[in-house]
């Protein structure tokens, strides 16, 4: 199930045709400038260019699906989801018996996706989100670097925290959820000095009709400003990095139209 889902996810998100995986770089080799052409059908063009230019250098290893271990209860929950969850008119997951979203969802919401299902794209996105949520509450120290044609311009460190109300093993989730959150996040700039203290706070709700609530604090202005959730593709802190870049897609699946256009294996 995991292997098929991975292929379907890549196809839906990248929208590329299938390729011969036999042409992939062999485990034990190194992917770098001289071997980049071996991966030309397995990487997005912008990533491939970095290998061709010598910017990236990585060892190729074999990572069989059997090395991945889900949390306790994940597979059982996934089987329950396969029998009970469907999409409502908003393309949000609901229990087909009640027409309402379950109080708590964990596991993959839609493990069995048919390619001819017109809602396959939405289901892939929900699976991607919940596969990430199962990793649980997190605190990440993220190094952002600004790179120009002449090299490294500057860098900053972000202290990013996520609190999940769905998806992870329930014992780790908040005991109460009166506001019906899906998750909350807080991002704080810790360096350099001119960015230190800049912060972003966000709430996402389970209700498919309720928009995200986002705020930003800029120390120089000494005030908090509401930020439109539609600005996910705007530059972050004066860079070319957007809010979507961290997760590939950071919006609500219900807000867009998704279609599966093909399958692709990739690195």
Question: What this model shows, in words?
Answer:
By secondary structure, the protein is of the alpha+beta class. It has 3 domains: 2-59, no CATH class; 70-134, no CATH class; 138-254, Lipoprotein localisation LolA/LolB/LppX (outer membrane lipoprotein receptor (LolB), chain A). It has helices at 2-14, 45-52, 74-84, 120-133; strands at residues 30-31, 58-59, 85-87, 93-95, 138-148, 151-164, 181-191, 199-205, 213-218, 223-227. It is globular.
Proportion of strand residues: 15-25%
What's the level 1 CATH class of the largest domain?
Answer: Mainly Beta
Looking at the structure, what is the overall shape? globular
- What summary fits the major beta sheet? 6 strands, antiparallel
- CATH architecture heading of the largest domain: Clam
Which regions are unreliable across 5 or more consecutive residues at pLDDT < 50?
A: 1-21
Across the major sheet, the strand order is: 5-6-7-8-9-10
The structure class reads: alpha+beta
- The count of β-strands is 10
In short:
By secondary structure, this protein is an alpha+beta fold. The chain has helices spanning 2-14, 45-52, 74-84, 120-133; strands at 30-31, 58-59, 85-87, 93-95, 138-148, 151-164, 181-191, 199-205, 213-218, 223-227. A hairpin with a 5-residue loop joins strand 3 and strand 4 (93-95).
Keywords for this entry:
single chain, 267 residues, alpha+beta, 3 domains, six-stranded antiparallel sheet, disordered N terminus
Task: Tell me the layout of helices and strands.
Elements: H1 2-14, E1 30-31, H2 45-52, E2 58-59, H3 74-84, E3 85-87, E4 93-95, H4 120-133, E5 138-148, E6 151-164, E7 181-191, E8 199-205, E9 213-218, E10 223-227
Antiparallel strand pairs: 1-2, 3-4, 5-6, 6-7, 7-8, 8-9, 9-10
């Amino acid at each position: 199930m995991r292997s098929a889902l991975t292929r379907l996810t890549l196809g839906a998100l990248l929208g590329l045709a299938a390729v011969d995986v036999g042409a992939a770089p062999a485990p034990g080799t190194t992917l770098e400038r001289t071997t980049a052409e071996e991966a030309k059908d397995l990487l997005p063009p912008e990533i491939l260019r970095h290998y061709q230019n010598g910017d990236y250098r990585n060892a190729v290893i074999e990572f069989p699906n059997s090395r991945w271990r889900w949390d306790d209860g994940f597979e059982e929950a996934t089987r329950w989801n396969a029998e009970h969850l469907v999409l409502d008119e908003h393309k949000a997951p609901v229990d087909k018996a009640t027409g309402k979203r379950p109080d708590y969802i964990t596991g993959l919401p839609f493990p069995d996706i048919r390619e001819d299902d017109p809602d396959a794209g939405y289901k892939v996105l929900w699976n991607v989100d919940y596969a990430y949520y199962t990793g649980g509450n997190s605190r990440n120290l993220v190094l952002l670097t600004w790179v120009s044609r002449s090299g490294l311009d500057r860098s900053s460190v972000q202290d990013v925290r996520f609190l999940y109300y769905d998806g992870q093993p329930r014992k780790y989730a908040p005991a109460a959820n009166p506001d019906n959150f899906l998750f909350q996040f807080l991002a704080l700039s810790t360096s350099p000095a001119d960015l230190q203290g800049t912060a972003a706070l966000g709430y996402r709700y389970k209700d498919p009709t309720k928009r995200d609530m986002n705020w930003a604090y800029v120390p120089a202005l000494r005030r908090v400003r509401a930020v439109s959730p539609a600005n996910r593709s705007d530059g972050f802190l004066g860079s070319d990095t957007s809010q979507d870049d961290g997760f590939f897609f950071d919006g609500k699946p219900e807000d867009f139209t998704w279609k599966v256009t093909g399958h692709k294996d990739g690195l």
